[in-house]
Amino acid sequence: MAEVKKILLIDDEKDFCFFVKQILERSGRFQVSIAHTGETGLTLAQQNKPDLIILDVMMPNMSGPDVADALLRNELLKSVPILFLTALVTEEEIGSRLMREIGGRNFIAKPVEAHKLISCIDNTMRCGDVNCGAVAR
Amino acid sequence: MIKPRILIADDEDIIIQLIKRVLTDKGYEVETAENGSVAVEKLKTNAFNLLVTDLKMPGLTGTDVLKQIKITNPYIEVILVTGYPTIEAAVEALKIGAFDFICKPFDINELVSTVERCLRKQAYAIDYVKATELRTLFEINRSVTSESNLDAYLGRILDSALSITRAKKGSLLMLDDHSRQLTVKAVRGNGDGAASAPAQLEVENTIPGRVIREGKPIVINSRESFDELMQSHPDMAPASLYTPPLASLPLRSQRTTFGVMNICEKESEEGFTEREYTLLAVLAGQGGVAIENFKLYNDLQAKIEMLEETIKKLHATQDQLIQTEKLASVGQLASGIAHEIRNPLGIIMSGLEFLKGTMKNDDPMTGESIEKMKNSILRANNIIIELLKFSRASKLELKAVDLCALIAEAAGLLEHQASLNAVEIQRQFPPLPVLIEADVTMLRQVFFNLFLNGIDAMPKGGRLSVCVTQEQSDGASWAGVNVSDTGTGIAPENLDRIFDPFFTTKEPGKGTGLGLSISHMILERHRGSIEVKSQVGTGTAFLIKLPVYAGQPAQQEEAWQK
Ligand SMILES: Nc1ncnc2c1ncn2[C@@H]1O[C@H](COP(=O)(O)OP(=O)(O)OP(=O)(O)O)[C@@H](O)[C@H]1O
Ligand SMILES: [Mg+2]
After folding, report:
1. How many domains would you assign to chain A?
2. Which ligand is nearest to the CA of B382?
3. Which residue, B20, B413, B469, B522, could crosslink B480 as a Cys pair with Cβ 3.0–4.6 Å?
4. DSSP letters of A8-38?
5. Is residue A18 part of a domain?
6. A25 touches chain B (CB under 8 A)
7. pTM exceeds 0.90 for this model
8. Closest chain A residue to B336, measured at CA
9. Chain A interface mutation, best of B335, B339, B343, highest count of A Cβ atoms under 10 Å
10. Residues of chain A where predicted confidence (pLDDT) is lower than 70
């Protein structure tokens, strides 16, 4: 049995976080902590370095890309793979902000089915370049 | 073109001179008035297209002037200028018929563009009034509208002329403006005369021709004077046609001579009496009026057709604009909606996944229900994705491609699906490539949409034809694509709506109603257009037009110079 991976989920949609946590933990392969703002997310990450961060793009105050920026500038956390999560994926968003500035390439669009989410998580942790979910391109 | 005339009224001389100079430079004829009463006086005695007036002037204000002149000259347009703008004054001015309102200090360009806009609107309004007047005239003159109608009328005139004068022979000739030939419109006269009369006569060297040229009647009352005429003009032909006495009268209106009426060979040998001649002149006058009306009618009809064509074109442009507006607003909405809806969809989806896992028993009904719910979420999500594509503001990636190849590719992708539905795809391409500048992915989507719609419209199978042509019109080269099917057709009341976002007649889940509106937008961005023709029960045809890629002549020229 593989070791349990630590996932940090940062998303302001509380109900969404709750369900995703249940789904992922039920698989027995993940242990999920939750933050509802970018700021708390960063604090949590520093306290307990996760194996993967799932990061919502659109959040009030500190947005997903802002958080990713901060993570990249942090020696301890810059190697943590990020899986972006978004309800609004346009080419502009992905193209300009995520791809160029941050270098993040993995994203998944809401709504997402459990098996897709899990395979995306696996791919991201293997540092693959696979995009998941239906994306408008 | 007559120069539009503009009157400027202002109590400040500097402003008057400034506006006058600018507008004169723009090619308008400009007059000035230093106060309201002078303006009103000038407007009463001269025709102006436009009044540009200051609002606040000693004595009559701009509003006073506006009120007074709109009564006597409803067509004049007025632009108000003021240094003390208030909303109330502006609203009041527009209410009583000002075209627009400019605040001092004003930007000269703004003034010029307002003037131009205003005169354009006026020209259009006047055209409209003209069209209405023409239409009225057209109704009045309905009596002599067709060629055969005119012939019968002229025949009646000739018959009256013969019976009044008790003459045996007569003819009525009409002048053809282009060939300068006289055509026989009516001829009377027993046997030989009628039969031997040629259908056409030259204007040169004939008696009727001379009448036409001079616009004056010729009356010859005796054999002697007839012979005299023939002798002095030996080439005046054909003498045999006429037996004196002879009266040849022009059919004319005030300005033009349209033809000639000839009357000759009276039952008695005597000449025409004064009274007979007067009556003949009246009849000839009536003939002239009839011919004039007929010509006028034809001209009018041509003009009316032209105007109607113009109006139709205007409406079409307007429709296109409205459609574009609609699509743009949907695009703006899209990103907002996407965020608001996809988040809850995300919650529902993960909630369902969660429930699926917590269920103890493996009741197939429950599992199935959850799958159905998940499918509905994906369906809603698909609409959002389509919308997002729609709002995509990115630039087109244009490159020169062969339209035929692009269409063939889109058709190829659907070949299998078509054959499953017993639909035969027919292609008709010109021998040479039709080059256009296009974003291949987007344009392929357009034809994909159209083909899919066609296949959907033929549930019992049929034929889907796509025909590409290259055409020349208005000095430009166009690629035309006709995509037609033998399907159900579109109900007339739906024809206006099929390009609207979300309009669909398909079952829930089968169509988003975005296919055509997206296609419309894509074509628009390619400077193209799409039209539809459809008949219920027969089929539907979509006609697409795209500008043909003309290459880069500038670069070619450079290369040639080197
Ligand atoms: N070739 C056709 N024959 C008959 N009706 C048509 C045809 N093309 C379009 N329509 C009508 O126009 C409607 C709108 O078409 P449109 O492509 O925009 O959406 P849709 O086909 O309903 O959905 P989608 O394209 O998103 O699957 C259709 O639902 C249909 O009623
Ligand atoms: Mg469609």
Report:
1. 1
2. 1
3. B469
4. EEE-S-HHHHHHHHHHHHHTTSEEEEEESSH
5. yes
6. no
7. no
8. A88
9. B343
10. 1-2, 88-105, 127-137
Determine, for residues B335 and A90 on separate chains, whether the beta-carbon distance falls below 8 Å: yes
Structure tokens at B85: 């703008």
| End-to-end alpha carbon distance in chain A | 38
The one-letter amino acid code at B494 reads N
Does A76 reside within a domain? yes
DSSP annotation of B271 reads -
Give residue for tokens 């007979």. B276
Name which of B350, B378, B385 is nearest A136 (Cβ-Cβ). B385
The residue that leads in pLDDT, B394 or B495, is B495
pLDDT tens digits along B176-201: 878 888 888 888 875 444 445 567 77
Average pLDDT, chain A: 80
Q: What percent of chain B has pLDDT over 90?
A: 22
Q: How confident is the model at residue B132 (pLDDT cuts 50, 70, 90)?
A: low
Q: How confident is the model at residue B438 (pLDDT cuts 50, 70, 90)?
A: very high
Q: How is residue A135 written in tokens?
A: 């994306």
Nearest chain A residue to B383 by CA: give it. A136
Residues from chain B contacting residue A89 (CB–CB below 8 Å): 388
Report how far residue B547's alpha carbon sits from residue B398's, in angstroms, rounded to the nearest whole number. 13
Contact (Cβ atoms closer than 8 angstroms) between residue B481 and residue B407: yes
Q: In CATH, what number is assigned to the domain containing residue A85?
A: 3.40.50.2300
Closest Cα to atom 9 of ligand 1: B453
Note which residues in 374-403 of chain B have CB less than 8 A from chain A.
374, 377-378, 381-382, 385, 388-389, 391-394
The residues lining ligand 1, judged by C-beta closer than 6 Å to any ligand atom, are B 449, 453-454, 457, 485, 487-490, 498, 503-506, 511-517, 540
Asked whether the beta carbons of B400 and B362 are under 8 A apart, the reply is no
For residue B487, the CA-to-ligand 1 centroid distance in Å is 12
Residue B428 bridge partners (DSSP): B467
**Counting atoms of ligand 1 from 1, which one is nearest the CA of B485?**
1
A17–chain B nearest CA distance, Å: 8
- Asked if the C-beta of B350 comes within 8 angstroms of chain A's C-beta atoms, the answer is yes
Strands (E), A36-78: 52-56
In a domain, A134, yes or no: no
Residue A113 to residue B349, Cβ atoms within 8 A: yes
Which residue bears the tokens 């709002």? B391
Which residues form the domain of A21? 5-127
Q: Apex CA B319: angle with CA B399 and CA B512, to 5°? A: 70
Q: How far is Cα B511 from Cα B452, in angstroms, rounded to an integer?
A: 11
Q: How confident is the model at residue B458 (pLDDT cuts 50, 70, 90)?
A: very high
Interval between CA B503 and ligand 1 midpoint (Å): 8
Kindly tell me the burial class for residue A104, based on how many C-beta atoms sit within 10 Å of its own C-beta (0-12, 13-18, 19 or more). Answer: buried
> Is A99 within a domain?
yes
Q: Quick one: B279 exposed, middle or buried, by C-beta within 10 A (0-12, 13-18, 19+)?
A: middle
- Cβ contact B514:B502 at 8 Å: yes
Q: Which of B379, B449, B516 to mutate to test the pocket of ligand 1 (most atoms within 8 A of CB)?
A: B516
User: Can you tell me whether residue B173 is helix, strand or coil?
Assistant: strand
